[in-house]
Structure formats: C-alpha cells, structure tokens
Specification:
Length: 291
C-alpha cells in the first residue's frame, strides 16, 4: 500500500468537530466537478489512492475516471462499504423494490430468489455476498486492490461475535475480486484478536490512531501495545483527532510506530493536502523512536 491515502469525508460534509465546517463543505462540494478538481490536485502531488465510501456521488466520479483513462491510468480506489445512509434514503424515496432495482446487479428475479432464499435460511453469508456485489457495481473496470468493510458493520459483527462472517468476507473478496480485504473499526485490538481467532493473519486494519486517544476504544495504551507487538498491517485514520491536534505533532506521534503502513487523511485545499502529505512522508520515513 502507498503511504498516503486520500479520503472523502470532506466531500460529503463529514466533520466530527464542527457543524459549521460541515455546512461549508457541503456547499463547496455540491457539484461533482469540485470533487474531481481536488482529486486531480492530489494526483498532481503524487497521491494515487482514493479511499472512499460507496456514496451515490462516487458512482459519478467512477464514471469520470472510466471516461478519462489516460488521466487516471495509475489511479486506485479503496472502496469502503456499506454506505448505510444511501440505503436508508433510497428506501424512503423508492421503496424496497425500487431500492433493490437500483442497487443490486443482475437479473432482479434471480437476485430476489437468491436473496429471499438466503433470508429464509438465515444465510447471512449469502446476503453479505449480495450486498458486496451491489456495492462493487460502481467500481467496475477500476483498480480496487483493497476493499474495506465500514466500521458500522465491522463493529456490529464484532459485538455479536459472528466472527465467521469475517472469514467468509475475507475468502469472498480474495476469490471474487482478487483484492485484499480490509477492515475499518473503532476497536482495533478487539478486531485483530477476532480476525486471528478465525485464521485471518496479518490483516489490513484501518482505525483511529492519534496522540490523544480520540475514538480509540479500549484506550491509547492497548493500541500502542498492539502496534508494537502484534502482526498486522495498520492504516492510521483520524490522526489529527478531528482538528484537535496540529499536523506536525500528530504526524510525529504516528512516526513512532514502524508497522503503520499508511495514513488516511482528507483536506479541501491543495496547500493543506501538500502540507499533510509531506508531513506523513517525512515522519513515516524517519520512523522516529521515542522509546
């Protein structure tokens, strides 16, 4: 994986610290062209991986990428699914049948048969496969070397102790999409233990990792212990703790952990993107050891 991954929160008005900033971002990125402009700026700065949700508007961005292959020939997307709000809104506007027709690929009657049978049999693995296929439809023809499950689902599975679902997801993503499965969580230590318990070794895990323990369930100390002692491929997100940390001190903290492979961040301006990218690269390459 590349050291620097660019995220999409800012495009869809996700700001964990300020509603005012969320509204401003919503206005700024109301057009798809404004998103594409920022993505093109990241490419000009050498960032070639976009880690994004399966928000409806991402389908438009994927269309643009497919229609301009010369501009995006080395570009990769790491999809993160499911985007729960999308389905909730669709059911409200289109109803259940309309939602299935819009999002589920293939023959609707065949899908109903497969999905209905899976539901009646409580075959959650088949249902999971249907949903993955539905979400991956928009990325057809685009390089997706890692495919993530969102923390809303990962942490639910974790809480229900349905660890076999993780094993099934791991197998399905590798076989069907020839990609590596990834997991986003708010409880990295518990998730790593769960994945290891069903035979998933050295997994890709994206979680909050920051100096003040923001959104790090279980506490910063156990995260640091796992980062130093356990075998997995960590991606650090929310390293700025929603703006509570200055970029320099945030990245110096991340630089203490040699196992962190990548840092995920989002920004709205080219200057901020360049500043953050440079800080990530400097600190991941230096790998400053404080202890």
């Amino acid at each position: 994986m590349e050291k620097v991954l660019f995220g999409d929160n800012q495009f869809f008005a996700v700001n964990h610290l300020s509603d005012e900033k969320s509204r401003a971002q919503s206005i700024r990125f109301k057009d798809d062209s404004s998103i594409i402009r920022v993505l093109d700026q990241t490419i000009s700065l050498g960032i070639n991986t976009f880690m994004c949700t399966t928000h409806d508007r991402i389908a438009n961005i994927c269309d643009h990428i497919r229609n301009n292959p010369e501009n995006y020939k080395d570009y990769k997307i790491y999809p993160c699914m499911p985007y729960a709000h999308k389905y909730a809104n669709a059911v409200t506007e289109l109803g259940i049948v309309g939602t299935i027709k819009q999002y589920v690929p293939g023959n609707i009657f065949g899908t109903f048969a497969k999905g209905g049978l899976a539901y009646l049999n409580k075959d959650f693995i088949k249902l999971m496969e249907l949903l993955v296929d539905a979400e991956m439809k928009m990325f057809a023809g685009i390089s997706t070397p890692v495919i993530f499950i969102q923390n809303v689902l990962v942490d639910l599975i974790l809480g229900l102790k349905m660890y076999d679902v993780f094993a099934a997801y791991d197998s399905y993503i590798r076989k069907k999409y020839n990609s590596e499965p990834g997991y986003i969580t708010m409880n990295m230590p518990a998730l790593l233990d769960a994945l290891n318990s069903v035979g998933i070794e050295n997994p890709v895990i994206c979680s909050s990792i920051n100096k003040i323990g923001f959104r790090m369930s279980g506490g910063k100390e156990i995260y640091e212990k796992y980062l130093n002692e356990k075998e997995f491929r960590p991606i650090a997100m929310q390293v700025l703790a929603a703006g509570a940390l200055r970029p320099k001190e945030a990245m110096e903290y991340i630089g203490q952990f040699p196992k962190i492979e990548s840092v995920l961040f989002g920004a709205s301006t080219k200057a901020h993107i360049e500043e953050t990218k440079n800080l990530i690269e400097i600190n991941l390459e230096k790998r400053i050891f404080y202890s």
